[in-house]
Amino acid sequence: MDTIRVTVWGEYRHEKKNPVVANIYPHGMHATIADALRRENGITAATATLDEPEHGLSDAVLANTDVLTWWGHIAHDEVRDEIVHKVQKRVLDGMGLVVLHSGHFSKIFKTLMGTTCDLKWREADERERLWVVEPGHPIAAGLGECIELPQEEMYGERFDIPQPETLVFLSWFQGGEVFRSGCCYTRGKGRIFYFRPGHETYPTYHHPDIQRVIANAVRWAAQPATPPVQFGWTKPREESLPYTVPEWLKAK
Amino acid sequence: MDTIRVTVWGEYRHEKKNPVVANIYPHGMHATIADALRRENGITAATATLDEPEHGLSDAVLANTDVLTWWGHIAHDEVRDEIVHKVQKRVLDGMGLVVLHSGHFSKIFKTLMGTTCDLKWREADERERLWVVEPGHPIAAGLGECIELPQEEMYGERFDIPQPETLVFLSWFQGGEVFRSGCCYTRGKGRIFYFRPGHETYPTYHHPDIQRVIANAVRWAAQPATPPVQFGWTKPREESLPYTVPEWLKAK
Amino acid sequence: MDTIRVTVWGEYRHEKKNPVVANIYPHGMHATIADALRRENGITAATATLDEPEHGLSDAVLANTDVLTWWGHIAHDEVRDEIVHKVQKRVLDGMGLVVLHSGHFSKIFKTLMGTTCDLKWREADERERLWVVEPGHPIAAGLGECIELPQEEMYGERFDIPQPETLVFLSWFQGGEVFRSGCCYTRGKGRIFYFRPGHETYPTYHHPDIQRVIANAVRWAAQPATPPVQFGWTKPREESLPYTVPEWLKAK
Amino acid sequence: MDTIRVTVWGEYRHEKKNPVVANIYPHGMHATIADALRRENGITAATATLDEPEHGLSDAVLANTDVLTWWGHIAHDEVRDEIVHKVQKRVLDGMGLVVLHSGHFSKIFKTLMGTTCDLKWREADERERLWVVEPGHPIAAGLGECIELPQEEMYGERFDIPQPETLVFLSWFQGGEVFRSGCCYTRGKGRIFYFRPGHETYPTYHHPDIQRVIANAVRWAAQPATPPVQFGWTKPREESLPYTVPEWLKAK
Questions:
Q1: Chain A residues whose beta carbon lies within 8 Å of the beta carbon of residue C131
Q2: Domain D4-118+179-250's class?
Q3: N or C terminus of chain D: which is more exposed, having fewer CB within 10 Å?
């Protein structure tokens, strides 16, 4: 792919209500994430937010998005089901999806996983350390053996997800918990990456390693468009077969 | 577990409309499947069908079901969403689920997989041969190296499912296609097995090897009840941590 | 299976040299592990140690072992290659294998994994907490949400193993590291479980939860004997094929 | 990576002994494979063969190889163990490996898999059809829904390998068997792809789709060099820990 077209989706509510968050992310977390992506070669980034028409995810936007990143928290329920279904369809058709932090409870992630995606949590200004468990994986490229975050919200196991196809990061928390923090999936032709860090009251998305992981994940999840997969009734490949076309199909 | 309590769910429509099907399964496919399970040690089997109240799946029935088997085809849309959600919840809580043949398009399977579960198909009286690819797996216990079915409907790849955690069977079809025919998943605490064969116009569920696989799958999917997993806010395990209980939680 | 026959293999060197270890395990770690298994219904346990003839693993012993557990540390190199090959062959043929703690560097584990199985480590009397990440898995049956060990050796990621088929436990360490502590594999027809805890200077194998996990792992890994898999030259299943028997095969 | 440096390894014996093979591959199968790779942008390809010194795989060659492809058949035993160990070490350190056809029985593949890698086979001029089961995978890029090979050797299940991390292709054979034909693995930091077709008496490696898959696999397996992973003794990350440096380590 010559250029990867990313749409950075943000709920964009905390930033407008909570001065602590607004101070860290004056233009929204999505703006910080998009700006970081724009500094990468071969990536363009647009943004979309909940309160825009169609949540900023019109058919045209989705059709021209190679990878969508998703951050939501307090307004998951306000995301309209028909938009969720369109996003799911695009993922199954090959669009990448990078789900961030509290996006674990988004409709789109739960729909694609089939589970509750529930977990333990605690806000206590804890240190988080994300260990790289697959150092050869492209999403870990350019990192050291771990990422240190001085303060983050804690997420703890059991995390109710299907077991990841590849587990890239594991988090250690000061308060005694662990978490599968970087999880790869394929659904349909689309690649999905869940990445844990990013509570709104910490400057996590300004951290260069976190920006590195998101950019790496975008590159990993981006795929060139491919022809639609053929499903449904099909003639036999082997000609000798004495098959019969079903009656109802003949009538069509 | 002393006894595994199975509920065999059948759509039970083809059998009432199509004399070919009625001739093979006079009391319904579900009755044939349940009868075979009842011949197993340590398994009890009840049945439930679409046209019963709550599709035969009341809260009490679900609460007393260790493993649910599911066959549906022409009336997937008639299965009510609230029943589907209850079944999903029970699976995530540990109930086993064995999805048979055209059940690939059932609401419950699609909900748990997160994908379209679409595939290629053809009705042409073809020979199917299911090869055992994991001979050490308990679902393959007691089988030879393959199962031969003289006539079946063809299902062909691409089968749009998440990649199985374990692939037990692969099908060969006379007309030239292949299919991942025996697929294991875990969702929440529940185990799910998809098993391909079983088109209504063939006596597939009378075949001893097919009955063996379904009984094996029931044993594999059955699990003793375990305490609910704890999710949500949690105190730190390590006592030295300077955490603060969130304001809104204090108020509760 | 009516009865699962376990052979508990112990290197049995630390116990004879180090009074700290001898005090905790006067008859060897293998004796403590075997005693705990003998208290389980349907399990019998024998022991075998490095300094016995054939390391206690004669053909007869291996043929009558359903599950082998393995603890070694300072004398991995003294395990003879021909015994390793016999154990590998038995695992591929269906014998279960439970590899404990420093057994990660045993010849048999490295041979079956194909990787270095290297890791980080530290002896610092640290607290370890093993979190259950798959609460529905039979190896986690009967446990709470985590196992607390007041003092253990630390093992940290990167752990150089093939990614587990199922990851059951994740360890948190006081000093800041995490580790994939309970890892399931299938190799051939055999099931393998790697379980991290058990440094010789701590009473870990006296801990009831650790004993529970080992017993659960033994039940999970045990499988009834099955006929050998057929490999090599094979006639076509489909009779119409104009195949030719290879010349060299005709001559046999 | 600017350029991917491939070494195409060939046993190069059949081509010198069997006129049928020599006619199809006058300069060896490795030459045909390398020529096809050289037509790709951003790939350079050298060759190496069994009868060269060090089998053409000196330390310098391995150090400058990003991806190694491997075809061997009648002389697996002649590959020297020390070369196998060097190749294994390079794979674990990040070199890609593409194992072709009868390479399933090579020392390097068996060493990395830990299993026998045995299978069923038959030479009967059969039609093979490789179905794409993961149409979104980069190794399937540019292909239709299947690859048709008019004549090939049959390989049939059970194929005694660890279950693939991703299964990209499934083969159908005219004589009635199926096979997992395109299998992805990670070992250490290295990526491994096994690809089934390529019996020496058929022009398989001249087929454009087969060449496409090998080039795709090379791109998928190629990874930029990364710093070595740190293993062994490590200080605690959390400073408060009352750890003690082991005595024997102090002495160093």
A1: 156-158, 177-178
A2: alpha beta
A3: C
